[in-house]
Write a structure and sequence with these properties.
Layout: H1 2-16, H2 32-65, H3 82-109, E1 119-126, E2 129-134, E3 139-142, E4 144-148, E5 152-159, E6 164-168, E7 172-177, E8 183-188, E9 193-199, E10 211-217, H4 219-227
Parallel strand pairs: 1-5, 4-10
Antiparallel strand pairs: 1-2, 2-3, 5-8, 6-7, 6-9, 9-10
């Protein structure tokens, strides 16, 4: 009875852990950058599922077919099977190519380049807060970044002290904020809303509290924010 309760409790906790909401999930992309990463992840995931099912199926067939039975001689080992060796060499190579090609395309697509008319934001990491500068708008703010929906955004990221990592899962991938060095990320948000982010690099005693918010505004709301 105690063991059954333990299993039921474990199952209940596992199911409870699957409950939402998930404000920092990469599985609900809301930008062109996020969708590119999600598309790549989905493709690789299904390739992994195919490989897993194939390998486990062959393993089960082998275990059942060649299991020990009374009075049955041991199976003869296969040696020097050229076709088999070519097959298990070429199959992984083909899969790696099918994974590598979209991976390289995605890397180039999210390299951080944005058109000249993009909204430019300079992000500076501090212990333990974020500073945002809009050089073309003359605005400086903290911990809360505003961007217009449907418009390209160019984010330049650096740090004033230690290494941080700027990460807004629904909009853009992680980019390190390194003192004396600038990294860039570009994205175009496609849904109005508030998106949570986090410093993803341990940066000191208050690292866990170094959160951030990106507010994707409509054109009118963004203009009002700029004027205020």
């Amino acid at each position: 009875m105690t063991r059954r309760r333990l299993w039921l409790t474990t199952a209940a906790l596992a199911v409870a852990g699957c409950a939402g909401p998930f404000p920092q999930s990469t599985l609900r992309p809301r930008s062109d950058f996020g969708r590119a990463i999600d598309h790549l992840f989905t493709g690789i995931f299904w390739w992994a599922v195919i490989v897993f099912v194939l390998v486990e199926t062959l393993l089960l067939i082998t275990l059942i077919r060649f299991r020990h039975r009374e009075g049955r001689p041991a199976p003869k080992p296969a040696r020097g099977n050229t076709a088999l060796e070519i097959g298990w060499t070429l199959a992984p190579a083909v899969i790696l190519v099918l994974v590598a090609v979209p991976t390289m395309r995605t890397i180039l697509a999210v390299a951080g380049d944005a058109p000249p008319d993009a909204v430019k934001v300079e992000v500076i990491g501090h212990q333990w807060w974020w500073e945002y500068k809009y050089p073309n708008l003359g605005i400086v703010t903290a911990n809360e970044m505003h961007v217009p929906v449907g418009k390209p955004v160019q984010v330049s990221i650096t740090s004033a002290d230690v290494i941080h990592s700027f990460w807004v899962p629904a909009l853009a991938g992680k980019r390190d904020a390194t003192p004396g060095h600038v990294t860039r990320v570009a994205f175009r948000a496609d849904s109005v809303g508030e998106y949570s982010g986090q410093c993803a690099e341990f940066c000191g005693v208050s690292h866990a509290n170094m959160g951030l918010r990106v507010l994707v505004d409509s054109d009118a709301a963004f203009e009002r924010w700029v004027k205020t």
